[in-house]
UniProtKB/TrEMBL annotation:
GO terms for biological process: phospholipid biosynthetic process. It comes from Parageobacillus thermoglucosidasius. This is Diacylglycerol kinase. Its cofactor is Mg(2+). The chain crosses the membrane at residues 29-46, 52-71, 92-116. The keyword Nucleotidyltransferase does not apply. Keywords: ATP-binding, Cell membrane, Kinase, Lipid biosynthesis, Lipid metabolism, Magnesium, Membrane, Metal-binding, Nucleotide-binding, Phospholipid biosynthesis, Phospholipid metabolism, Transferase, Transmembrane, Transmembrane helix. The lineage of its organism: Bacteria, Bacillati, Bacillota, Bacilli, Bacillales. Substrate binds at residue 65. A divalent metal cation binds at residues 24, 72. GO terms for molecular function: ATP binding; kinase activity; metal ion binding.
Length: 117
């Protein structure tokens, strides 16, 4: 394994994450909500299984937001003119984030509500 290449790959991936956080308001909102959920989870001492589900849920939302941002950039690279396929690509990618975010809210309610009642 070429460690210099691996380090460069990691640096590029990190640069992509930083760019998405800087440029995308929704990414910052997802991260802020994730931090709040993690703090609440720590305060409530949720179980190991609940931690796993919470982390997977947060990871899926942030991962899909990154993919959505990448698709937006790729589409904008191809065309900034109106095109039905550009619209479909962006709308479908946004739909993926929406589904993950709705599932995250439901997971949050299922995990946290019993501790709060
Ligand atoms: N080239 C295009 N052709 C057709 N429709 C487009 C095009 N670009 C964007 N759209 C439409 O506008 C919507 C918003 O696109 P935009 O690129 O502004 O992304 P966004 O979801 O607002 O993301 P953000 O504001 O976080 O960058 C898309 O979901 C799509 O419906």
């Amino acid at each position: 394994m070429d460690w210099r290449k691996e380090r460069k790959r990691f640096a590029c991936a990190w640069a992509g994450i930083v760019a998405a956080v800087r440029e995308e308001t929704h990414m910052r909102i997802h991260i802020a909500l994730a931090v709040i959920a993690l703090v609440v989870a720590a305060i409530l001492h949720i179980s190991k299984l609940e931690w796993l589900i919470l982390l997977l849920t947060i990871g899926s939302v942030i991962t899909l937001e990154l993919v959505n941002t990448a698709i937006e950039r790729a589409v904008d690279l191809v065309t900034t003119d109106f095109h039905p396929l550009a619209k479909a690509a962006k709308d479908i990618a946004a739909g993926a984030v929406l589904i993950a975010a709705v599932v995250a809210v439901v997971v949050g309610i299922i995990i946290f509500l019993p501790y709060l009642l």
